[in-house]
Amino acid sequence: MLRAVVLVFALLTHATMAGATDTSVCGQLGHLAAARLRWEMVRKSRVDPANHEMSCRSYDANFVEAVAARQAVSACRSGTELQRTLELLDTEISAFNDLIATHCSG
Predict the structure, then answer these.
(1) Does the N-terminal or the C-terminal CB of the chain have fewer CB atoms within 10 Å?
(2) What's the domain range around 46?
(3) pLDDT tens digits in sequence order for the chain, 106 residues long
(4) Within a domain: residue 29?
(5) Is residue 22 part of a domain?
(6) Residue 106 and residue 102: Cα distance in Å, rounded?
(7) Is residue 19 domain-resident?
């Protein structure tokens, strides 16, 4: 949990210091549906005890990717589309956070 909080804080701090919205990030939001499908597959995959560390790294990387996508969405979208997309991404972030807490802490 602490690792997840630190990652979110680092990403948000980096974005604040970056200043203006990068238009290339906004152009990549079309890949969000594919990313969500990939995240779903990662979440549903079994944790193999022999590859426990690899699974945890995957959860971490996908968590960070979801947080970065949320950040991009908040800068590039507005109105009801923004709210709906943020809710979907919050669900993804929460799911990865739960997986990390359940399988990778200790």
Answers:
(1) C
(2) 2-11+34-103
(3) 556 554 555 555 555 444 444 555 576 667 888 898 999 999 888 777 788 889 999 999 999 999 999 998 888 878 888 898 899 999 999 999 999 999 888 6
(4) no
(5) no
(6) 9
(7) no
Residue 25 lies in a domain: no
Query: Residue holding tokens 């991404």?
Result: 89
Phi, psi values for residue 76, rounded to 5°: -110, -15
Which residues, other chains included, contact 69 with Cβ-Cβ below 8 Å and sequence gap of 6+?
A: 29, 32, 35, 89
The predicted model scores a pTM of 0.71
Give Cα separations from 100 to 4, 37, 57, 63, 103 (angstroms).
8, 19, 9, 9, 5
Would you tell me the crossing angle of helices 79-103 and 32-44 to the nearest 10 degrees?
A: 20
Query: Which residue in 93, 75, 92 sits closest to 25, CA to CA?
Result: 75
Domain count, the chain: 1
